[in-house]
Amino acid sequence: MTFSVWAPGHERVRIQVDGVTHAMTAADGGWWHTEVSGDSYCFFVDDDETPLPDPRSLRQPAGVFGPSQRYSHDFAWTDSGWAGRVLAGGVLYELHIGTFTAEGTFDAAISRLDHLVSLGVDFVEVMPVNSFDGVAGWGYDGVLWGAVHEPYGGPDGFKRFVDAAHARGLGVILDVVYNHMGPSGAFLDRFGPYFAGQNIWGPALNVYGPGSDEVRRYVIDNALGWLRDFHVDALRLDAIHAIVDHRAKHILEELAEEVDALSAGLRRPLTLIAESDLNDPRHVTGRESGGYGLGAQWCDDIHHALHVFLTGEEQGYYKDFAAPQALKTTLENAFFHAGTWSSFRERTHGRSIDKAHTPGHRFVAFLQNHDQIGNRAAGDRMSATVSPGVLACGAAILMCTPYTPMIFMGEEWAASTPWQFFASFPDPDLANAVRTGRRREFAEHGWGESEVPDPMDPATVQNSTVDWSELDDAKHREMFTTYQALIRLRRTYPELADPRLDRFKVDQDGRVVTLHRGSIKVVCNLGSTEVQRPAGEILLASPGVDVVIPPESFAVVR
């Protein structure tokens, strides 16, 4: 069998296979090859005796510092009838494999997929499963992007999860990170010019400088592999604003072209969803119109506007969203900052979208997600701040907008468990740096050291694991039933999922918000006075701290 590795500019490259070292032969373009039999392998570059895993490794059974292992994509798939799902009209559910169940594995997560079917969602969005140093972590510190994290169940475990999701009619979105490498085990620069500077999270990839053709191929091949070999339906691209590319064709546009080509070949929809801080509509504008052609992007502005409206928090980047009509402006336009002043950034920010030609389903909206909860000092959820009634009203607004709604695991039953920042780097110096850096960051905002959970403490992971027994509690169950009813309502009345932004209007009268959805109006009253509305409208209220809106009130009277 042939082993290959890209290592330009080196005098020699050796490979150790099953404990035996072999010379490799240089070929064109900086590639090295050899024919040898075996499964467990690592590389040595020049005279360095440090064993290096394969940058394109598909399996790391001993972790990111161990040898790579040959892996065959042969798998007994049962999803031959799966035709895929389009994003338009769908409802997403974000989860983290390590804390979705007490076991923290793909197989354990499979046992909870029927819950998601009962809830009514269409897609499961899985946070990164690539290989990272340590056992527990969010996944954004991955260093071997093609190898599935072994503690979760490895590559076959992930395939079982995708196969089981498809059997239940659920599409699978995978979160991938192409903007940086993690701080531990990132050996790519030992092989070649993979890195080009740093961003706030770690080494950034060289996607436009000398030698970048193969680096770009490294990214694109990784993305195509998840979609083709693991049958994933969509990729969520983490923090694309941190990918610096000065080429005429941005790597995201090139990636979108290749994914569309693969979609045609596989005859099922494949979608790219960006996370971006830029408020730039070009990301979700078609390539024929000069855009990148991505299928959708996360929309933080909608989250911020809803968060401020529901919780009253106004600190930091929430300040701008405390304006009297901020919720109306953001809901109607997707971006609040659209060429307007951002006090947090101390400059103008963003660009307005073309509402006549940009459908709302290209913007993923949410009340909560892993970032907006986990990057709070204590990792507290919105349910720790607002009453069940207010949370229900927020969910109603979210589900009845033209956007693609997303739920974060446990949100649907107002989980009492926090979701905190955690990692498990074995290197004590790195672990301490992360611990002290986290505490120092929040100390600047008035938090005491004891108030910020230790990200390296296994108890932080345990505290962040959702407690499924809460569904047996009447109040938590009532919130779940409310979310169920809202999703069902969205299915029953197509006007509520209509993505046409130029037909969407919002009235904001103090604490009363009215969404105009075709012949239906959705009225959410978060004020203290009763609001009288005529038949033909859905009336949601937040009458008390312990009262959830009963689902039977979600009937539309024509």
UniProtKB/TrEMBL annotation:
Per the record, where is site Transition state stabilizer? Answer: D371
**Which ranges form a coiled coil?**
none
Instruction: Name the positions where substrate binds.
Output: 236-241, 300-304, 370-375
Which E.C. number(s) belong to this protein?
3.2.1.141
Q: Identify the domain of life.
A: Bacteria
> What does the entry list under GO cellular component?
cytoplasm
Give yes or no: UniProt keyword DNA-binding: no
The entry's localization annotation reads:
Cytoplasm
Q: Which reaction does it catalyse?
A: hydrolysis of (1->4)-alpha-D-glucosidic linkage in 4-alpha-D-[(1->4)-alpha-D-glucanosyl]n trehalose to yield trehalose and (1->4)-alpha-D-glucan
**Pathway, per Swiss-Prot/TrEMBL?**
Glycan biosynthesis; trehalose biosynthesis
User: Matching CDD domains, A to Z?
Assistant: AmyAc_GTHase, E_set_MTHase_like_N
Q: Which UniProt keywords apply?
A: Carbohydrate metabolism, Cytoplasm, Glycosidase, Hydrolase
Q: Where is the Glycosyl hydrolase family 13 catalytic domain?
A: 69-490
List, alphabetically, the InterPro entries matched. Answer: GH, GH13_cat_dom, Ig-like_fold, Ig_E-set, Trehalose_TreZ, Trehalose_TreZ_E-set_sf
Q: Does the keyword Hydrolase apply?
A: yes
Please name the catalytic residues of this protein: D238, E275
Single GO BP term: trehalose biosynthetic process
Q: Name one GO molecular function term.
A: 4-alpha-D-(1->4)-alpha-D-glucanotrehalose trehalohydrolase activity
As for family, the record states: Belongs to the glycosyl hydrolase 13 family.
Protein name per the record: Malto-oligosyltrehalose trehalohydrolase
Q: Please tell me the species this chain comes from.
A: Actinocrispum wychmicini
